Every structure is written in structure tokens, then in C-alpha cells.
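FIELD: query
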Amino acid sequence: MEAPELFATAVPEEQLEGGRERALRRIFGPSQCLRSVERPRGVGSLPAIVQGRMWEHWQKGRDFSSSDRWEEAIICYTKAISLDPWRPLLVAMLTSLPCRANVCWTRSSTVRPWRPSHRQPSCSLTAGCSAREALSLFCSMVCLAALGEFPEFLQMLNRELEEDVRNPDAYVLRAFFYNRFEQLALCHQDIQRALKLEPQHRAAQALWHRLLRQGQEAKSQAVLKALCGDLHGALYKISLAIESDPLAAEFFTLRGTLLRLLKNFSAASKDLARARELSTVGSPEAREAQRQLVLTYNDCAVHCYALGRLDEAVKLLGEALRDERMEQGIYANRGECFFRLGELAYALADYQQALELSPGNRVVQGRIAAVLHEKGRQDLAARRFLEAEACFSMAIEHDPREALYYLDRAMAKWCLGKVESAREDVALSLWLNPTDSKILSLARHLFPRKTVQAILRSETGRLAQQTLDKILQCPPRLPSDDA
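FIELD: result
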């Protein structure tokens, strides 16, 4: 059964065939060679044709640029951009042309102000106007940037973004030029805005990866400059790295360390605190940021100590100990601040904590002895002789090489009526320092009409020598007769 005719026509087939023949004659003329071609082959799809023409114009533009034919290059690049406006390479080629060529293009172009009366939400600069108007707007912005008229370029692009805040392409374009003019922090912001609107935006991702590479390169240069002693140059490079990638904790740690070495403690503390925030808890990056922050507090406290700002130094060391309780040096430094402030109990507590963390540390032991000696002198002045004797004895246990401790203990014993024990302490102090005027003065009272050598060769002197041998395990040198 035959199918019914779907599209019936009243025109006879003979008339249709005659119309075809007349049309072919108008197209091909008298030639008969193309009459048999039913369908052209190898033409390809429309996108492929557009891309091919775009690359053809781009190549011609490069050729013209190499021979300094700037006006022709501008025309070719503009044609390529009209076929693919968002290819960053084309934009870069156009903006890299000399200013005089862009001036010629700007003067010869017929750019009209673009004032669309209303626009629908879109993701392209071409929305809301004709393609010719959008291309004119785009190319005028590109030329303004190439001419160095950056404020005017930003004004035009910002106006576009005010009208359409959900335009990732516009953010990418502005980020591209921020990167070109080394405003990396603003470039990073616009990239993030574009990726938030369109996470798979290829141009934004490419520019983002470029920023990451720039950040790592700047960090490497900062490290090299720091190793060479150029701290200010290193600081500049690592600041560029942070602008490129403000979420890299290692960059803030390095800049904080450099700022600490340059004694800019306030800025260093902020950077290291930021590095700690960006790091994963317990990670090596977090531990290093923490360590550098503690060192910053300590160095700042040392600086304040040198200036006599002891209360401020104590507060800074307290901040350091809040984050790091296993660093004996910080306890020792705070103990020194308390000692100078006259807070002997607090000073002694910090020194003892430092000694627990570093057993056998002779420097810390010496500081503990100094605190106990000062406490003994206060008790001696207040006529608390037993307490004074006990403090001097503990001071000697921590630092048995200090002659003054034996002398003051001898004074406390003498006041308590322990004359023989006081004589032994005087002999001990003479073995350690036979020329000290204070020791010689007390020796004349406890050993009337005897010389120093006679005192040391007496029974008391020999017992004192044996005691020192046990304590120091190295016998002191016998003083000469004229000492």
C-alpha cells in the first residue's frame, strides 16, 4: 500500500525542474563541471570552521607584528578576538603590541558608549547588546590596559561588574590584568570569585595555577636571599608569594621568621598566628609556626628587657609559656625579669622549673644561687640570722665556687655565735679569693694578727682546703707569701 503524499503541491514537476535549472545557471553560469556535485565534502562543523579562522587571523597577526606592521596586526588580532573573545592568549597578544599601534586602533575604531536599557542575568560580556557593541567595548578595555590607562580600564570593567555581579568571565578578565600589573592579592580575589560562580572555569583555573607557581618561585627566591643575608630582599619576595597564594601557611611562617629577625615583632606575631590558623592541627607546619611564634615572644621580651621594660617582658614571656611549657630558656628569661623586679619567690620558681627541664645546667644553677643569696642578704639585714644561714647554704650548694656566699654565711654564723664555723667559712672564701677586701676585713676580726697565708696553713685552713677538694675536685692554688 502506497503512503499518502505528505506535502502536496499544485506546482507541476516540470516548472520545479525549470526553476532549478535557472538557479544553477545563475550560480555557475555556463560551466557544467560543478553541476554534478550534490554536497560539498570536508567542510566540517561550524565550531571547527570558527576555530580555524580564529587561528588563521592570529597567525597573520603574529607575522605582521614580527615585521612591525602594527596596524595590520591590530586588525588581525581583533578579528581573532571577535571569533573567540575569551582566549587569554589573544588578549595577551593584543595588549603586548606597542602603544602607538593601539593608539592608531583606538582612533580608527568607532566605539560607541554602551548603555543597555535593560539586561537579563548572563555570564558573558556580550549579553544585553549586539555582538559588535560588545566587541567594541571589550577591545576598548584591552587597548586602555595596553596603553597603561589602568584606572580607565578598571572603571569600564567595574561598571560591567556592577551591572552583572555573577559574571565569571569579567572577573577572570580583571584578574588577568591584575596579574599583569602585579596586583596579585586582587588577582587572587577575582579568581576565587570566578571559581565560586563557575568552579570548572578553564581560564580561571589556568590563572590560579599560574599564581600558585609564581608563589612557589617567589618563596624559593626568598629563601636564597635569606641565606645570603639579604633579609629585606627576602621579605619582599615572600610578600609577593603571599599575595599569589594567601592560603599557604608555609609562606606566612617564613615571613614571620624574617620579620622576627628584623625585630618587627608585632608583624611577625600576626603572620605566625595566621600560619598556625591555616595549618592542620598537629602537622609539621603547625609545629614550626608554633615554635617560631614562641621564639618571637622570647626575642621581643629580650628586647624589652634591654630597654628596662620589665613588666612588658614578663607578659610576653608568659604568652610564650602559655603555648610552650617545655622550653627551659623561656623560664630562665622570665626568672631573670622577676629577679630584677625584686620578685624573688617568682624568680626562684621559674629558675627551678628551668633546672627541672635542663638538669645540671650550671648557668641556671648560678641564677638560683644568686636569688638565694639575695634572699639571705635580706634576712641578714632583717636580723633573721637562721633564715639567712639556710639561704646562704642553699646558694653554696648550687654554686660552690662563689667566695661571697661563704663570706655572708660566715657573717650569719658569727651573729649566731658560731665563731669556729664562721672561721671555716672565711678560710673557704680566702681559698677562692684571697684578695677580696670584704673577705680580708672579716678575716682580721676572726683571725686577729694573722696573715692570709698563716690562716690558710692553719688547721682551719687545711680543713677548708679538704672541703673544697671534695666539692670542686680540684685543689686550689696556694697563694704566695706576699698575698
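FIELD: remark
The chain is about 70% helix and 0% strand.
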